[in-house]
Amino acid sequence: MNPMTQLDHLVYAVPDLVAATEEFAKLTGVTPVQGGRHPVGTANYLVGLGPAAYLEIIGPDEPGSRPPVFGLDRLTEPRLAAWAVRTGDIDRQVRLARERGHDPGEVVPLSRRKPDGTLLEWRLTRWPDPEPIALVPFLIDWGATAHPAASGLPRLELVSFRGTHPEPGPVRAALAALEAELEVAEGPQPALEARLLTPNGLIRLS
Predict the structure, then answer these.
(1) Is the domain 6-156 a CATH 3.40.50.720 member?
(2) Distances from the Cα of 64 to the Cαs of 128, 146, 148, in angstroms?
(3) Among 40, 110, 128, 177, which is least packed by CB within 10 angstroms?
(4) For the residues 65-73, what does the mean pLDDT come to?
């Protein structure tokens, strides 16, 4: 992957955050760490995937709420919904991607507050109505904020990460425009799959 765009995190969207996090801990043998709350009505738990990447388990902050983020407003079961690549100059990466024929979307500022009260802030690209499963990553720029993976998260090993799509050609073109790498095979429907090496063995998230 180009040094300007590195894997930042995988997004595991869940309809019930507490239940899904507990199930993940039982499945893997690793307990995710509470990340914090977002102003958009979501909260997350995190697991490291090395020193510079992580898995985000994200769901509604309040039981029964349905925030329109990562398809949570219509989600009925957990799924690997999206992924992000990190850049140190998001405006430049957006401009380059558009010149290459792919529009990553609008750059917007976001934040979340950690349980200790620390405010984390970043910028990312976002479409108003994202796909339920997004094989093309969004861009994220942490600016001066310390990266979450550097905060001592419990870790799992990301063994593989790949996707399938009925029409992989346009997906591959968009990935190239973003300077992002993902193996995309032809398949019956859009899907992402990650294989993680855990204390309980190899597991698959999709």
Answers:
(1) no
(2) 22, 32, 27
(3) 128
(4) 86
